[in-house]
Amino acid sequence: MSPDEIRKSSRLILLCLAALALISMVAFMTLGAKGSWSFVLSFRGTRLAAMLIVAYAIAVSTVLFQTITGNRILTPALTGFDALYVLLQTSIVFLFGAATLTGLDPQLMFIAEVAIMVGFSLALYRLLFGSGRHNVHLVVLIGIVLGGLFRSMSGFLQRIISPDDFVVLQDRLFASFNVTDQTLVGVSALLIGLVTIAIWRMFSVFDVMMLGRDTAVALGVDHKAMTMRILVLISVLVSISTALVGPVTFFGLLVANLAYILMPAAKHRIMLPAAVLVAIICLVGGQTILERVFAFDTALSIIIEFAGGLFFIVFLLKGRVR
Amino acid sequence: MIGISGVSKSYGQTVVIDDVSLTLPKGGLTSIIGPNGAGKSTLMSMIARLLPIDRGTVMVDGLDVALTAGDALAKRLSILRQDNHLAARLTVSDLVSFGRYPYSKGRLTDEDRGHIERALTYLGLDELKHRFLDELSGGQRQRAFVAMVLAQDTDYMLFDEPLNNLDIRHAVAMMKLLRDAAKDLGKTVVVVLHDINFASCYSDHIVVMRRGRLFRQGVPEEIIREEILIETYETDFKVRDMDGNRIATFY
């Protein structure tokens, strides 16, 4: 396809996606609204904002993670973030009981969780990159091993806490988009804004990184520093999203690969917005269907993981979807 | 001029490059030949700062490659590695545009576009430039990558086995192109080759590596000789003069 055709068709697809995203947002805000509009709008507005933040964070972090690993079936979840989150929650319940977990100031909790998760990944990257070697696959591998460790520790603790505590904990461990705390959403939006400023002018560097280490170095990119920088950005994004709503594993894989299939060319300038829009459609549209069709009977993350799991299997069976 | 002095590289206990000192002259086409595991590709990767150097220095036009900023070096020296696998979906002209990244940082100027068009034409890719890389044959994709290196327009161009995946016609065309780039455009071209006869017919200078060391270097007439090739490859060789070229047979 010529550059003009690519530009035209990507613009068209982006417009369609934006329209769909807008429709799902409007549907989410208005469908089934009863009573005072000002209450409905502010109540649903906060939750919508939380979903937009999560959609953005997951989409951007997954696409960037796949760019630096050169692999389209990896997600940042592999580096042990969600396992660490689960371990944190489990440890609190184990040490102080479920009453403490539900009683904790959510803002304090949020900041502590983000700080611990970002701190953990910074320490991990520093350790790996400081030793002179730098190998993203080593980061992934160690992340998987640590994730396994965290999961086993959580599993052990979950088995020895009281069943009542466990029920409360289990509810926490499914991502839930019923966030109502405006301050949390505000803080997250601010942090996400900072990350966006950091990545705003880096689209063409991301494109070069996509060509792999050797080519990127040959084209004059400081590959090591850039990988480290992108990993830090990813860890901030994933931590915010996890602390806000809980772990969402397959979601990133789903939206990133949908974006790759939909868009004609792989430039980040169009791929990142496309992935974000797909994420908004899935999340907000999915939540609307969940609330209006299934009447809140289940958590959205269950549906996402189910659909994401199916998609993942189809993706693997078909090889590279083209 | 590329000055390599006292360069060594080892992985754990295994020494892969052992104290190599060598000067690659400016201009012309230099071939690096030698058996598998002789360290040809490793040496080339170290020259292009793709691999860290354990000991010794590599200077390109007086710049130490280990200390010079990556983007400054990218305007002087380019390299194409052997296997270039891409997960991303890119067109040929997209790929070639990346060659201009050291200059334009992603915002192409008219001058950049001129370089890209010339590189595409030079490699005979005009017809294919809007095709996606995953729709091309291995040889066509190889040529697209070479076009990217050409668009980078550096004085020094390094190619690690550029004839991989090419049929005879395209292999000959590729070697002619590299020789012409050296001759007409005044570039310094360094290639790692497996085909001794290509090295013999097209090189101005041949470097022979063996067991991680520099074994011999010189003009093709000095290198393509039975006793040297037999010692290098530990295989029987016959060398004949044909139409002014020295041709080695080993079948």
From TrEMBL, chain B:
- Keyword set for this entry? ATP-binding, Cell membrane, Ion transport, Iron, Iron transport, Membrane, Nucleotide-binding, Transport
What SMART domains does this protein map onto?
A: AAA
Q: GO MF annotations for this entry?
A: ATP binding; ATP hydrolysis activity
Record domain ABC transporter: where: 2-236
Q: Could you tell me the membrane topology recorded for this protein?
A: Peripheral membrane protein
Among SUPFAM superfamilies, the record links this protein to: P-loop containing nucleoside triphosphate hydrolases (SSF52540)
**Does Isomerase count among this protein's keywords?**
no
The Gene Ontology biological process terms listed for this entry are: iron ion transport
Which cellular component terms (GO) are annotated to the entry?
Answer: plasma membrane
Mind telling me which InterPro entries this protein's record contains?
AAA+_ATPase, ABC_transporter-like_ATP-bd, ABC_transporter-like_CS, P-loop_NTPase, Siderophore_ABC-ATPase
* Chief localisation class: membrane
Where found, per UniProt?
Answer: Cell membrane
What the entry lists under PANTHER family is as follows: IRON(3+)-HYDROXAMATE IMPORT ATP-BINDING PROTEIN FHUC, PETROBACTIN IMPORT ATP-BINDING PROTEIN YCLP
Q: Which family does it belong to?
A: Belongs to the ABC transporter superfamily.
Q: What is this protein called?
A: ATP-binding cassette domain-containing protein
